[in-house]
Amino acid sequence: MRIPVAVYRIQFTPTFSFREAKKILPYLKELGVSNLYASPVFLAAKGSVHGYDIADLNRINPELGTEADFSKLTSAIQKNNMGLIQDFVPNHMAYDQRNAMLMDVLENGESSRYFRFFDIEWNHPVEGLKGKVLAPFLGKPYEECSQDRDIRLKLDTQGFGITYGDLRLPLRIDSYAKILEHVTVRYFWVVKKGSPSQTRLSEVLRILNRLPRQASSREKNIRRIKEILWRLYSSDRSIRNRIDEMLAELNGIKGDRSGFNSMDRLLSEQFFCLSYWKDAAQEINYRRFFSINGLIALRQEKTQVFQHVHRLILSLCKKGIVNGLRLDHIDGLYDPSRYLAKLRKKAGDVYIIVEKILGKEESLPAGWPVQGTTGYEFAAAVNGILCRTDNRERFDQLYKRLTGCKKTFEKSVQDGKRLVLENEISGDVDNLVHLLQNIADADRRARSLTFKELRDAVLATIAHFPVYRTYAGPEGPNIQDRRRIRTALSQARGGRTHPSAALSFLRRILLFSVKVRNYDQTAARTDFVMRFQQITSTAMAKGFEDTALYNYNRLLSLNDVGSSPSNFGIDLADFHRFNESRRNLHTLGLNATATHDSKRGEDVRARLNVLSEIPEEWGRQVSTWMHLNSRKKPHVRGKPFPPRNEEYHLYQTIIGALPFYEEEWAGFCERIKGYTVKALREGKVYSSWLEPDEECEAAFKTFAERILRPSKDNVFLKEFIPFQKMVAHYGVFNSLTQTLLKITAPGIPDFYQGAELWDLNLVDPDNRRPVDFEKRKALLREILDKAKVYPMALIESLLKTKENGKINLFLIAKALLARSLRTRLFEQGAYQPVRAGGARKDHLVAFARIWRTQWVLVIAPRFFVALAGEREYPLGKGVWGTTYVDLPDGAPRYWREAFTGRRLEADGRIFASEVLKDFPVSLLLNEEKI
User: Distance between CA 908 and CA 888 in Å, rounded?
Assistant: First the structure.
């Protein structure tokens, strides 16, 4: 297995292609990166900017470059002695015309070889969906689209298709016969019997009427039908005229209702059912990725599905082109454990990480054959120790006072999950409850339970579920999962002494304590539990990440994926315990501090953590700003907008994301305006994706624009900017500590594209903006050249110009060099917390990594406001006094500091004033002698 030293995540787009990625490889290697960590490269929906809407997992996306371009990129990776970690999406594909497998299903129904590939309930209880899959892509109700003639039948090289805007869905192949018989009757009136065109048209009808059921023969005949039909349409004017006449009659003219019933009858025959996109929230018969209609789930639990969609990626692994896999949304799979076991067997010794969000005190299932996760839990831990936990009560009080919000975060999550369950995925819940009702009907003690009683029990349990999901298989839940299920069921009682009959029945099903009589009942119970687990994951993701994190705004640095605002930071002892556990369990998982799914960039969070040190000053500032800006609020339905909670959210966002340089502020205002819309819709209080309130959104954008408009009369900016600059000053040092800990703690450091300079991005799409790699190349070259000749002068210059981010780039290059020289130590070395002493001991995070005779000692400061003045640096004896760290037993005597190059001798103790004299963080490597 090729273990990475450090990985660098890139986002492929049509403007950042394989060719562009190839150009940055020398830069990444020079920086110290060992593996390119790539977003999906497979054929996606047309124009995709992220690649997760995959249409074909066995084809390279031509919008990113040719197969030759991809081959040149992978060859260049190997020539640079680097590896490739490929993001792979096993859970879902695009519901899109480029998805040939799905289009084949819509064309052939049960005769398609892919009929069982997608997670579709073909026998749905709603009569209109039996034998069909919902196609919820209409921009307005079906009746309106029909009356406005927006839905049209067309003929092209792919055959007959139903179109709506850019959407094209294939006509059921059985419908061709009726259409062509109608065309043939008209055509035979104007041509001589026995003409070549008539013969060919008759051949098409003959093939249609004798289509075999066997998939391979059927596909061959269908291709033949389409070829002949298009050739006739293109070459025979009379046939083209007859087909065009027929199409014109069916498609009709807007406002003219004649022919409306014919089109409606044609649509009713199809294997898809067109509907208004909003209807999918209440009525759906395919599993989606969360609540995204355009992403339809695969059934990876089926052997033929796994084998088919993994052909290309397994081939790339076998050839050594791909050295690692990042598995997206592992919690969405029906049976993640069995999927991973199958993948490991087929892929061999490749490095595998899973996108999995771990709850508090949760670890990966013990049997998963993976190296670890994508690192959300590390981001939460390292962020947590930069937040002053002892100021929690002060922040609670000021948040209530400034916004009027009294709801706990736990209640916000429960409400968010219920909102999502009742509005965005209500149809998915109903499908699940139908499965439960079928089981109840076969149970003597439960058959009297109504659908509503069962639904209420399911909703309450999911709303209180403590983790994303459990992993029970056919053998039932393990001890930990049983504990989590019981916790959810207990809280679902709502304080009642005894659970309802429906909750009691649900408990017996989830805990596998129902006695089943036959195989069918056993299979039904297992299927329900497995699907229940998939929905708890969706509810948590949408209710927690995409709802509660936008509504509970006490301190936004804590509002991110993998973290929880209910914890106001973590204690240093907890951080050490986390690292020790990680070292023992998954020392090769990723140490991420930002991902493409992060709510805000890593350095935005680092800034906002400064606020945790100054609650009183922060509260005074916000009170002043709210007063100054009260008249700048537009009115929506008679009330000023935004409300105080959203206004409080906005101030934190601006403080965290405001660029260092004023020339970038103009573009920043537009970014903030886009962010306000997304924040409102995700929060689902004043607007939502299902029901956008454009008036509220416009008002919020107007308010943001008014308070950020540079002018002599803008008193707010005059008050705001000095405070923001102070926070940004201290935030830089938080960022440096964060970066050093990421590189040196147990795990593999992961760098998100562009974050080697300051990452002041907000949630996507803001964090997917183009990265200026030419700038970074030039800066790195300059830093490395100066470091060889004038290292101390370079460090002095980096500190004076810390706003440009070069100091972070320098830290990364130096720390990764040390890591590359001692790979075994960082991969396998022990982790040992190091005790600090003296007046400033609480401001130090220190630990050692040890492998045989190799040692490194990490000393990183925190809580900088109390350490140094606003324009000062946390360096030297004047700051640190006699604060020290005690070396562990057996520690070496001689050390070299990685950033300054200084050597020192230590006899059991190292003083902070000595190692933090010239640079804000320290990485010490043992040496034989000075």
Answer: 7
Residue with tokens 């899959």: 133
Give which of 402, 232, 301, 380 is closest to 91, Cα–Cα: 301
How does DSSP assign 57-96, residue by residue? EEEE-TTT--HHHHHHHHHHHHHTT-EEEEEE--SEEE-S
Element (H, E) at 520: helix 519-540
Amino acid at 276: Y
Token pair 């192949």: residue: 173
Task: Write down the pTM of the prediction.
Answer: 0.95
* Neighbour-count burial for 663-683, b at 16+ CB within 10 Å, e otherwise: eeeeebbebbbebbbbbbbbb
**Is omega for the bond preceding 833 within 30 degrees of 0, making it cis?**
no
pLDDT in tens, 131-171: 999 999 999 999 999 989 999 999 999 999 999 999 999 99
- Please compute Rg for the chain using Cα positions: 31
- With cut-offs at 50, 70 and 90, classify the pLDDT of residue 928: confident
Nearest to 810 by CA among 919, 926, 927: 919
- Strand ordering across the sheet containing 83-88: 372-373, 351-354, 324-327, 83-88, 35-38, 7-10, 748-752, 590-592
pLDDT of residue 636: 98
Contact between residue 297 and residue 287 where contact means Cβ atoms under 8 Å apart: yes
CB atoms inside a 10 Å sphere around CB 781:
12
Are 917 and 911 in contact by the 8 Å Cβ rule? The answer is: no
Q: What confidence tier does 191 reach under pLDDT thresholds 50, 70, 90? A: low
* Cα distances (angstroms) measured from residue 707 to each of 643, 714, 882: 15, 7, 46
The DSSP element (H or E) to which 136 belongs, if any, is strand 133-138
If DSSP codes are grouped into helix, strand and coil, which group holds residue 399? Answer: helix
- HSE-up of residue 423 (Cα within 13 Å, Cβ side): 15
CB burial readout 317-326, b (16+ within 10 A) else e: beeebbbbbb
State both tokens at 846.
Answer: 């220190």
Q: Are 269 and 277 in contact (CB under 8 A)?
A: no
What confidence tens digit (pLDDT) does each residue in 289-330 have? 999 999 999 999 999 999 999 999 999 999 999 999 999 999
**Of the given ranges (312-326, 487-501, 880-894), which has the lowest mean pLDDT?**
487-501
Amino acid letter, 726: M
Interhelix angle 615-628/715-744, nearest 10 degrees? 140
Reported as a pLDDT band with limits 50, 70 and 90, residue 519 is confident
Nearest-10 crossing angle of helices 715-744, 602-611: 120
Query: How far, in Å, CA of 651 to CA of 716, rounded?
Result: 11
Only one residue has tokens 């992961």, namely 750
What does the block give as tokens for 802? 């810390």
Tell me how far apart the alpha carbons of residues 216 and 207 are, in angstroms, rounded to a whole number.
15
**Residue-by-residue DSSP string for 631-654:** GG--EETTEESS-HHHHHHHHHHH
Residues 538-552 have a mean pLDDT of 97
371 contact partners, CB below 8 Å, separation of at least 6: 351, 352, 353, 586, 588, 589
Closest by Cα among 357, 368, 367, 286 to 328: 357
Within 8 A by CB and 6+ apart from 558, the residues are 383, 384, 387, 564, 565, 567, 568, 569
Give residue 235's pLDDT. 93
Taking the CA atoms of residue 483, residue 487, residue 492 and residue 497 in that order, the dihedral angle to the nearest 10 degrees is 100
Strand-strand pairing, 836-837 and 639-640: unpaired
- Residue 460 sits at the vertex; the CA angle it makes with 457 and 465, to the nearest 5 degrees, is 120
For strands 884-886 and 836-837, give the pairing. antiparallel
Question: Any idea what DSSP says for residue 476?
Answer: B
Percent of the chain at pLDDT exceeding 90: 89
pLDDT of residue 35 exceeding 60 = yes
The DSSP secondary-structure symbol of 158 reads T
